[in-house]
Specification:
The chain is mainly alpha-helical. 46% of the residues lie in helices and 10% in strands. It has helices at residues 2-14, 21-24, 45-71, 96-122, 128-148, 163-181, 184-197, 200-213, 232-239, 275-288, 292-306, 364-369, 374-387, 393-397, 406-411, 428-431, 455-461, and strands spanning 75-77, 151-153, 160-162, 218-224, 246-248, 266-274, 311-314, 336-337, 352-355, 440-443, 448-451. The chain has a 3-stranded mixed sheet, with no helix packed on it. The protein has a two-stranded antiparallel ribbon with strand order 1-5.
Length: 472
Protein backbone atom coordinates (compact mmCIF):
# COMPACT_ATOMS: atom_id res chain seq x y z
CA UNK A 1 0.00 0.00 0.00
CA UNK A 2 2.86 2.37 0.77
CA UNK A 3 4.29 1.84 -2.70
CA UNK A 4 0.94 2.61 -4.32
CA UNK A 5 0.70 5.86 -2.35
CA UNK A 6 4.21 6.90 -3.38
CA UNK A 7 3.53 6.18 -7.04
CA UNK A 8 0.28 8.13 -6.91
CA UNK A 9 1.95 11.11 -5.27
CA UNK A 10 4.67 11.05 -7.90
CA UNK A 11 2.12 11.04 -10.72
CA UNK A 12 0.11 13.85 -9.12
CA UNK A 13 3.16 15.98 -8.43
CA UNK A 14 5.01 15.56 -11.70
CA UNK A 15 2.32 14.46 -14.10
CA UNK A 16 -0.11 17.34 -13.76
CA UNK A 17 1.74 19.73 -16.07
CA UNK A 18 2.66 19.35 -19.67
CA UNK A 19 6.02 21.08 -19.60
CA UNK A 20 7.56 19.97 -16.27
CA UNK A 21 9.57 17.26 -17.97
CA UNK A 22 11.88 19.83 -19.51
CA UNK A 23 12.78 21.11 -16.06
CA UNK A 24 14.09 17.78 -14.82
CA UNK A 25 15.60 16.58 -18.11
CA UNK A 26 19.20 17.35 -17.34
CA UNK A 27 20.46 15.46 -20.40
CA UNK A 28 19.78 18.53 -22.55
CA UNK A 29 22.44 20.46 -20.60
CA UNK A 30 25.92 19.12 -21.32
CA UNK A 31 29.11 20.14 -19.56
CA UNK A 32 31.97 19.06 -21.86
CA UNK A 33 34.04 18.22 -18.79
CA UNK A 34 31.37 15.96 -17.27
CA UNK A 35 29.72 14.29 -20.27
CA UNK A 36 30.10 10.60 -21.02
CA UNK A 37 32.10 11.38 -24.14
CA UNK A 38 34.65 13.24 -22.00
CA UNK A 39 35.48 9.87 -20.42
CA UNK A 40 34.57 7.05 -22.80
CA UNK A 41 36.89 6.87 -25.79
CA UNK A 42 39.55 9.13 -24.32
CA UNK A 43 43.21 8.07 -23.95
CA UNK A 44 44.11 6.93 -20.42
CA UNK A 45 40.49 7.20 -19.31
CA UNK A 46 40.61 3.66 -17.88
CA UNK A 47 43.44 4.49 -15.49
CA UNK A 48 41.58 7.61 -14.36
CA UNK A 49 38.42 5.53 -13.90
CA UNK A 50 40.43 3.07 -11.83
CA UNK A 51 41.48 5.91 -9.54
CA UNK A 52 37.81 6.69 -9.15
CA UNK A 53 37.15 3.09 -8.11
CA UNK A 54 39.86 3.33 -5.46
CA UNK A 55 38.21 6.49 -4.17
CA UNK A 56 34.81 4.81 -4.14
CA UNK A 57 36.21 1.88 -2.13
CA UNK A 58 37.36 4.38 0.49
CA UNK A 59 33.76 5.63 0.70
CA UNK A 60 32.53 2.06 1.09
CA UNK A 61 34.89 1.45 4.01
CA UNK A 62 33.84 4.74 5.60
CA UNK A 63 30.36 3.23 5.86
CA UNK A 64 31.07 -0.42 6.64
CA UNK A 65 33.84 0.04 9.21
CA UNK A 66 31.87 2.25 11.59
CA UNK A 67 28.84 -0.04 11.54
CA UNK A 68 30.69 -3.34 11.73
CA UNK A 69 33.18 -2.33 14.39
CA UNK A 70 30.53 -0.81 16.65
CA UNK A 71 28.25 -3.79 16.05
CA UNK A 72 30.97 -6.20 17.12
CA UNK A 73 32.51 -6.62 20.56
CA UNK A 74 35.60 -4.68 19.47
CA UNK A 75 34.44 -1.22 20.54
CA UNK A 76 31.89 0.46 22.76
CA UNK A 77 30.36 3.76 21.71
CA UNK A 78 29.68 5.89 24.76
CA UNK A 79 29.24 9.40 23.39
CA UNK A 80 30.31 9.81 19.79
CA UNK A 81 28.45 11.19 16.79
CA UNK A 82 29.01 7.91 14.97
CA UNK A 83 26.18 5.39 14.70
CA UNK A 84 23.99 5.49 17.78
CA UNK A 85 22.29 2.18 17.02
CA UNK A 86 24.78 -0.50 16.03
CA UNK A 87 26.51 -0.72 19.39
CA UNK A 88 23.40 -2.47 20.72
CA UNK A 89 22.77 -4.25 17.41
CA UNK A 90 19.68 -2.16 16.78
CA UNK A 91 19.45 -2.58 13.02
CA UNK A 92 16.57 -0.72 11.36
CA UNK A 93 15.50 -0.11 7.76
CA UNK A 94 14.96 3.57 8.61
CA UNK A 95 18.54 4.07 9.76
CA UNK A 96 20.24 6.35 7.19
CA UNK A 97 23.45 4.39 7.73
CA UNK A 98 21.75 1.37 6.13
CA UNK A 99 20.87 3.49 3.11
CA UNK A 100 24.30 5.02 2.76
CA UNK A 101 26.14 1.72 3.19
CA UNK A 102 24.01 -0.03 0.61
CA UNK A 103 24.34 2.81 -1.90
CA UNK A 104 28.11 3.06 -1.63
CA UNK A 105 28.52 -0.69 -2.21
CA UNK A 106 26.17 -0.60 -5.18
CA UNK A 107 27.93 2.44 -6.59
CA UNK A 108 31.21 0.52 -6.42
CA UNK A 109 29.62 -2.28 -8.43
CA UNK A 110 28.16 0.01 -11.08
CA UNK A 111 31.44 1.90 -11.51
CA UNK A 112 33.30 -1.38 -11.98
CA UNK A 113 30.77 -2.69 -14.50
CA UNK A 114 30.86 0.55 -16.49
CA UNK A 115 34.65 0.36 -16.51
CA UNK A 116 34.51 -3.17 -17.91
CA UNK A 117 31.80 -2.49 -20.49
CA UNK A 118 32.51 1.06 -21.65
CA UNK A 119 35.54 2.89 -20.29
CA UNK A 120 38.14 0.18 -20.75
CA UNK A 121 37.22 -0.92 -24.30
CA UNK A 122 37.05 2.72 -25.39
CA UNK A 123 40.53 3.59 -24.12
CA UNK A 124 43.30 3.09 -26.70
CA UNK A 125 45.74 2.74 -23.81
CA UNK A 126 43.67 0.13 -21.92
CA UNK A 127 45.92 -2.47 -20.28
CA UNK A 128 45.33 -6.02 -19.10
CA UNK A 129 46.32 -4.97 -15.58
CA UNK A 130 43.63 -2.29 -15.49
CA UNK A 131 41.04 -4.68 -16.90
CA UNK A 132 41.87 -7.18 -14.17
CA UNK A 133 41.46 -4.43 -11.57
CA UNK A 134 37.99 -3.62 -12.90
CA UNK A 135 36.96 -7.26 -12.43
CA UNK A 136 38.59 -7.23 -8.99
CA UNK A 137 36.49 -4.27 -7.91
CA UNK A 138 33.38 -5.90 -9.31
CA UNK A 139 34.22 -8.97 -7.23
CA UNK A 140 34.79 -6.80 -4.16
CA UNK A 141 31.35 -5.24 -4.51
CA UNK A 142 29.76 -8.69 -4.42
CA UNK A 143 32.04 -9.89 -1.64
CA UNK A 144 31.19 -6.93 0.59
CA UNK A 145 27.48 -7.34 -0.21
CA UNK A 146 27.64 -10.95 0.94
CA UNK A 147 29.59 -10.11 4.05
CA UNK A 148 27.20 -7.50 5.42
CA UNK A 149 23.76 -8.29 3.96
CA UNK A 150 21.68 -11.47 3.98
CA UNK A 151 20.07 -10.44 0.69
CA UNK A 152 20.63 -7.44 -1.55
CA UNK A 153 19.80 -6.56 -5.18
CA UNK A 154 22.67 -6.87 -7.60
CA UNK A 155 21.25 -4.43 -10.11
CA UNK A 156 19.12 -1.27 -9.91
CA UNK A 157 15.63 -2.16 -8.62
CA UNK A 158 16.56 -5.79 -9.11
CA UNK A 159 15.47 -8.95 -7.35
CA UNK A 160 17.41 -9.38 -4.09
CA UNK A 161 19.85 -12.28 -4.10
CA UNK A 162 21.27 -14.10 -1.10
CA UNK A 163 24.66 -13.55 0.47
CA UNK A 164 25.64 -17.01 -0.77
CA UNK A 165 24.92 -15.98 -4.35
CA UNK A 166 26.82 -12.72 -3.87
CA UNK A 167 29.82 -14.77 -2.74
CA UNK A 168 29.50 -17.01 -5.79
CA UNK A 169 29.31 -13.98 -8.07
CA UNK A 170 32.36 -12.54 -6.35
CA UNK A 171 34.26 -15.73 -7.11
CA UNK A 172 33.24 -15.54 -10.77
CA UNK A 173 34.43 -11.93 -11.10
CA UNK A 174 37.64 -12.66 -9.19
CA UNK A 175 38.35 -15.65 -11.43
CA UNK A 176 38.05 -13.29 -14.40
CA UNK A 177 40.59 -10.96 -12.79
CA UNK A 178 42.94 -13.84 -11.98
CA UNK A 179 42.76 -15.15 -15.57
CA UNK A 180 43.89 -11.76 -16.88
CA UNK A 181 46.57 -10.77 -14.37
CA UNK A 182 46.76 -12.80 -11.16
CA UNK A 183 47.58 -10.94 -7.96
CA UNK A 184 47.75 -12.38 -4.44
CA UNK A 185 44.93 -10.17 -3.18
CA UNK A 186 42.65 -11.49 -5.93
CA UNK A 187 43.26 -15.03 -4.68
CA UNK A 188 42.76 -13.96 -1.06
CA UNK A 189 39.45 -12.26 -1.83
CA UNK A 190 38.42 -15.52 -3.50
CA UNK A 191 39.62 -17.44 -0.43
CA UNK A 192 37.49 -15.21 1.82
CA UNK A 193 34.38 -15.75 -0.30
CA UNK A 194 34.91 -19.51 -0.18
CA UNK A 195 35.70 -19.35 3.54
CA UNK A 196 32.37 -17.73 4.39
CA UNK A 197 30.61 -20.18 2.07
CA UNK A 198 32.22 -23.04 3.97
CA UNK A 199 33.98 -24.30 0.85
CA UNK A 200 37.05 -25.51 2.70
CA UNK A 201 38.94 -27.08 -0.19
CA UNK A 202 38.48 -24.05 -2.45
CA UNK A 203 39.40 -21.67 0.37
CA UNK A 204 42.60 -23.61 1.08
CA UNK A 205 43.56 -23.62 -2.60
CA UNK A 206 42.98 -19.88 -2.98
CA UNK A 207 44.82 -19.04 0.26
CA UNK A 208 47.82 -21.11 -0.81
CA UNK A 209 47.77 -19.51 -4.27
CA UNK A 210 47.84 -16.06 -2.67
CA UNK A 211 50.84 -16.88 -0.48
CA UNK A 212 52.66 -18.54 -3.38
CA UNK A 213 52.55 -15.28 -5.30
CA UNK A 214 53.66 -13.10 -2.37
CA UNK A 215 54.23 -14.22 1.21
CA UNK A 216 53.70 -10.79 2.76
CA UNK A 217 51.29 -8.98 0.43
CA UNK A 218 49.06 -6.22 1.73
CA UNK A 219 46.31 -4.47 -0.22
CA UNK A 220 45.08 -1.26 1.36
CA UNK A 221 42.73 1.61 0.63
CA UNK A 222 44.02 5.18 0.85
CA UNK A 223 42.31 8.29 2.21
CA UNK A 224 43.02 11.89 1.24
CA UNK A 225 43.12 14.06 4.36
CA UNK A 226 43.30 17.25 2.30
CA UNK A 227 40.78 16.71 -0.48
CA UNK A 228 38.73 13.75 0.69
CA UNK A 229 37.53 11.26 1.28
CA UNK A 230 38.99 11.45 4.77
CA UNK A 231 38.96 8.35 6.94
CA UNK A 232 35.82 8.32 9.07
CA UNK A 233 37.13 5.58 11.31
CA UNK A 234 40.43 7.32 11.95
CA UNK A 235 38.35 10.27 13.11
CA UNK A 236 36.44 7.89 15.35
CA UNK A 237 39.57 6.31 16.85
CA UNK A 238 42.10 9.12 16.94
CA UNK A 239 40.95 12.44 15.56
CA UNK A 240 38.14 12.59 18.12
CA UNK A 241 40.68 13.54 20.83
CA UNK A 242 38.80 14.18 24.10
CA UNK A 243 35.52 15.23 22.51
CA UNK A 244 34.11 11.79 21.79
CA UNK A 245 34.50 8.45 23.45
CA UNK A 246 34.95 5.26 21.45
CA UNK A 247 36.72 2.58 23.46
CA UNK A 248 38.03 -0.91 22.66
CA UNK A 249 37.63 -3.85 24.96
CA UNK A 250 40.51 -3.91 27.48
CA UNK A 251 41.66 -7.15 25.84
CA UNK A 252 42.25 -5.12 22.65
CA UNK A 253 43.66 -1.96 24.23
CA UNK A 254 47.20 -2.63 22.97
CA UNK A 255 45.90 -2.50 19.37
CA UNK A 256 44.22 0.90 19.65
CA UNK A 257 44.28 3.23 17.78
CA UNK A 258 45.05 1.21 14.67
CA UNK A 259 44.63 4.36 12.60
CA UNK A 260 46.38 7.53 13.73
CA UNK A 261 47.60 10.78 12.23
CA UNK A 262 49.96 10.45 9.23
CA UNK A 263 50.04 13.90 7.64
CA UNK A 264 47.86 16.81 6.64
CA UNK A 265 47.51 15.27 3.16
CA UNK A 266 47.08 11.57 3.95
CA UNK A 267 45.03 9.61 6.48
CA UNK A 268 46.07 6.17 7.67
CA UNK A 269 45.15 3.42 5.18
CA UNK A 270 42.85 0.47 5.85
CA UNK A 271 44.57 -2.87 5.18
CA UNK A 272 41.71 -4.95 3.85
CA UNK A 273 43.36 -7.90 2.10
CA UNK A 274 46.61 -9.06 3.68
CA UNK A 275 48.61 -12.27 3.84
CA UNK A 276 47.76 -12.80 7.51
CA UNK A 277 44.23 -13.80 6.53
CA UNK A 278 45.51 -16.63 4.35
CA UNK A 279 47.46 -18.12 7.28
CA UNK A 280 44.41 -17.89 9.53
CA UNK A 281 42.16 -19.57 6.95
CA UNK A 282 44.70 -22.36 6.54
CA UNK A 283 45.11 -22.82 10.29
CA UNK A 284 41.35 -23.02 10.79
CA UNK A 285 41.11 -25.59 8.01
CA UNK A 286 43.92 -27.56 9.71
CA UNK A 287 41.98 -27.63 12.98
CA UNK A 288 38.83 -28.81 11.21
CA UNK A 289 40.93 -31.64 9.72
CA UNK A 290 42.35 -32.53 13.16
CA UNK A 291 45.85 -31.60 11.97
CA UNK A 292 47.27 -29.73 14.94
CA UNK A 293 50.84 -29.90 13.61
CA UNK A 294 49.90 -28.07 10.41
CA UNK A 295 47.81 -25.57 12.38
CA UNK A 296 50.76 -24.76 14.61
CA UNK A 297 52.92 -24.32 11.53
CA UNK A 298 50.53 -21.87 9.91
CA UNK A 299 50.16 -19.88 13.13
CA UNK A 300 53.93 -19.77 13.54
CA UNK A 301 54.15 -18.40 10.00
CA UNK A 302 51.50 -15.86 10.99
CA UNK A 303 53.58 -14.67 13.96
CA UNK A 304 56.68 -14.41 11.78
CA UNK A 305 54.76 -12.26 9.30
CA UNK A 306 53.26 -10.00 11.96
CA UNK A 307 56.73 -9.39 13.38
CA UNK A 308 57.66 -7.70 10.08
CA UNK A 309 54.67 -5.34 9.97
CA UNK A 310 54.85 -1.66 10.83
CA UNK A 311 54.43 -0.61 14.45
CA UNK A 312 53.80 3.10 14.88
CA UNK A 313 55.19 5.01 17.84
CA UNK A 314 52.61 7.67 18.60
CA UNK A 315 51.62 10.22 21.20
CA UNK A 316 48.20 9.12 22.43
CA UNK A 317 48.32 10.93 25.75
CA UNK A 318 45.20 12.93 24.95
CA UNK A 319 43.29 9.64 25.12
CA UNK A 320 42.75 9.05 28.82
CA UNK A 321 40.37 6.07 28.78
CA UNK A 322 37.98 7.95 31.06
CA UNK A 323 34.75 6.86 29.35
CA UNK A 324 33.05 9.96 30.81
CA UNK A 325 33.58 8.71 34.36
CA UNK A 326 37.14 9.10 35.68
CA UNK A 327 38.85 5.81 36.39
CA UNK A 328 36.17 3.68 34.78
CA UNK A 329 38.48 1.92 32.30
CA UNK A 330 41.96 0.38 32.49
CA UNK A 331 44.57 2.98 31.59
CA UNK A 332 47.99 1.68 32.65
CA UNK A 333 50.27 -1.18 31.72
CA UNK A 334 50.08 -2.88 35.11
CA UNK A 335 46.41 -3.82 34.70
CA UNK A 336 45.71 -7.53 34.32
CA UNK A 337 42.79 -8.33 32.00
CA UNK A 338 41.07 -11.70 32.22
CA UNK A 339 44.14 -12.96 34.05
CA UNK A 340 46.49 -11.79 31.28
CA UNK A 341 49.05 -9.00 31.49
CA UNK A 342 50.48 -6.79 28.75
CA UNK A 343 47.18 -5.96 27.10
CA UNK A 344 46.78 -2.35 28.32
CA UNK A 345 49.01 0.57 27.37
CA UNK A 346 49.99 3.44 29.64
CA UNK A 347 49.34 6.43 27.42
CA UNK A 348 50.31 9.02 30.02
CA UNK A 349 53.93 7.92 30.37
CA UNK A 350 55.09 8.82 26.86
CA UNK A 351 54.63 7.57 23.32
CA UNK A 352 53.11 4.13 22.82
CA UNK A 353 53.77 1.47 20.17
CA UNK A 354 50.65 0.41 18.26
CA UNK A 355 50.59 -2.02 15.29
CA UNK A 356 49.27 -0.29 12.18
CA UNK A 357 48.77 -3.39 10.00
CA UNK A 358 48.44 -6.41 12.29
CA UNK A 359 49.05 -7.16 15.92
CA UNK A 360 48.29 -10.03 18.26
CA UNK A 361 48.79 -11.24 21.80
CA UNK A 362 49.37 -14.75 20.47
CA UNK A 363 52.80 -16.12 21.45
CA UNK A 364 54.99 -19.00 20.37
CA UNK A 365 54.26 -20.65 23.72
CA UNK A 366 50.52 -20.37 23.07
CA UNK A 367 51.00 -22.11 19.74
CA UNK A 368 53.15 -24.87 21.20
CA UNK A 369 50.54 -25.59 23.88
CA UNK A 370 47.62 -25.39 21.45
CA UNK A 371 45.51 -28.52 21.07
CA UNK A 372 43.01 -29.64 18.48
CA UNK A 373 39.98 -28.86 20.62
CA UNK A 374 37.50 -26.09 21.29
CA UNK A 375 40.07 -24.20 23.35
CA UNK A 376 42.44 -24.23 20.37
CA UNK A 377 39.72 -23.01 18.02
CA UNK A 378 38.77 -20.29 20.51
CA UNK A 379 42.38 -19.15 20.57
CA UNK A 380 42.35 -18.95 16.78
CA UNK A 381 39.18 -16.82 16.81
CA UNK A 382 40.67 -14.55 19.45
CA UNK A 383 43.65 -14.14 17.14
CA UNK A 384 41.38 -13.38 14.18
CA UNK A 385 39.73 -10.67 16.29
CA UNK A 386 43.08 -9.10 17.13
CA UNK A 387 44.59 -9.28 13.64
CA UNK A 388 41.48 -7.87 11.97
CA UNK A 389 40.50 -5.23 14.53
CA UNK A 390 39.16 -2.08 12.84
CA UNK A 391 38.91 -3.95 9.52
CA UNK A 392 35.27 -5.05 9.75
CA UNK A 393 35.65 -8.84 9.90
CA UNK A 394 34.69 -9.58 13.52
CA UNK A 395 31.12 -8.48 12.75
CA UNK A 396 31.00 -10.92 9.84
CA UNK A 397 32.46 -13.71 11.97
CA UNK A 398 29.56 -13.11 14.39
CA UNK A 399 27.05 -13.99 11.67
CA UNK A 400 25.20 -10.66 11.92
CA UNK A 401 23.70 -9.09 8.79
CA UNK A 402 22.44 -5.58 8.06
CA UNK A 403 19.10 -4.77 6.38
CA UNK A 404 17.95 -3.39 3.05
CA UNK A 405 17.10 0.26 3.58
CA UNK A 406 13.59 1.69 3.55
CA UNK A 407 13.99 3.63 0.29
CA UNK A 408 14.92 0.45 -1.56
CA UNK A 409 11.97 -1.37 0.00
CA UNK A 410 9.53 1.36 -1.01
CA UNK A 411 10.80 1.96 -4.54
CA UNK A 412 11.85 -1.53 -5.63
CA UNK A 413 8.78 -3.53 -6.79
CA UNK A 414 10.68 -6.76 -6.03
CA UNK A 415 10.90 -6.06 -2.30
CA UNK A 416 8.30 -5.74 0.42
CA UNK A 417 8.75 -5.08 4.11
CA UNK A 418 9.07 -8.39 5.90
CA UNK A 419 10.85 -10.07 2.99
CA UNK A 420 14.24 -11.71 3.58
CA UNK A 421 16.85 -8.99 3.90
CA UNK A 422 14.45 -6.43 5.35
CA UNK A 423 14.89 -7.78 8.87
CA UNK A 424 18.28 -8.10 10.54
CA UNK A 425 20.01 -11.43 10.95
CA UNK A 426 21.31 -11.81 14.48
CA UNK A 427 22.06 -15.38 15.64
CA UNK A 428 20.18 -16.33 18.79
CA UNK A 429 23.41 -16.88 20.71
CA UNK A 430 24.46 -13.32 19.82
CA UNK A 431 21.08 -11.82 20.72
CA UNK A 432 21.34 -13.47 24.12
CA UNK A 433 24.53 -11.57 24.98
CA UNK A 434 24.02 -8.22 23.21
CA UNK A 435 23.97 -6.33 26.50
CA UNK A 436 27.31 -7.86 27.46
CA UNK A 437 29.20 -7.53 24.16
CA UNK A 438 31.18 -4.53 25.42
CA UNK A 439 30.60 -4.91 29.16
CA UNK A 440 33.59 -4.92 31.50
CA UNK A 441 34.38 -4.73 35.18
CA UNK A 442 37.40 -2.82 36.40
CA UNK A 443 38.90 -2.61 39.86
CA UNK A 444 41.41 0.23 39.68
CA UNK A 445 42.69 -0.46 43.17
CA UNK A 446 43.39 -4.11 42.49
CA UNK A 447 44.58 -3.39 38.95
CA UNK A 448 42.33 -6.03 37.41
CA UNK A 449 39.74 -5.97 34.66
CA UNK A 450 37.55 -8.56 33.04
CA UNK A 451 35.14 -8.78 30.15
CA UNK A 452 31.61 -9.93 30.88
CA UNK A 453 31.77 -12.62 28.20
CA UNK A 454 34.25 -14.35 25.91
CA UNK A 455 32.57 -13.98 22.53
CA UNK A 456 35.18 -16.11 20.76
CA UNK A 457 34.30 -18.99 23.10
CA UNK A 458 30.59 -18.39 22.42
CA UNK A 459 31.17 -18.57 18.67
CA UNK A 460 33.05 -21.85 19.05
CA UNK A 461 30.42 -23.25 21.41
CA UNK A 462 27.90 -22.68 18.60
CA UNK A 463 30.13 -23.95 15.81
CA UNK A 464 27.43 -26.38 14.67
CA UNK A 465 25.34 -23.38 13.58
CA UNK A 466 25.52 -22.58 9.87
CA UNK A 467 25.84 -18.89 10.76
CA UNK A 468 29.34 -18.98 12.25
CA UNK A 469 32.64 -20.96 12.18
CA UNK A 470 32.19 -21.98 8.54
CA UNK A 471 34.54 -24.98 8.45
CA UNK A 472 32.78 -26.86 11.26
Amino acid sequence: MKKVIIYCVAIFTFGCTGDFGDVVDFTVVENPNLSESSVVGQPNSSSIWLSGLERQLALVFNETLVLSELGSDNYVNTQTFFSQFLDGLTIQITDPDMRDTQRQIQRLRELALFGIAEVGPGDPNYTAETEAEFYFFEGLSYLISGMYFSTLPQEPVGVPITSEQHYQNAITALDAAIAINAKPEYHLAKARANYYLGNKGAAIAAANAALALDADFDRFVLFDAANGPVSTFESALYGRATFDDLQPLPTLDFLDPKYSFLSTSEDAPVHYLKAEEAHLILAEANLSDNDIVAARGNLTDLLDLISTREVRNIDDSIEQRTQVSEGSRPDNASVVVNGRSGLVLDRQSGNVDVPSVSGTSLTASDIAAMQDDDAGLTLLYRTRQEVFIAEGLRFVDMGVKLVIDENEILLNPNINEGDPGTTPVIPAFISAVVADLDAITYDAGAGTASTAIDLSAILVANKSSNQVVPFE
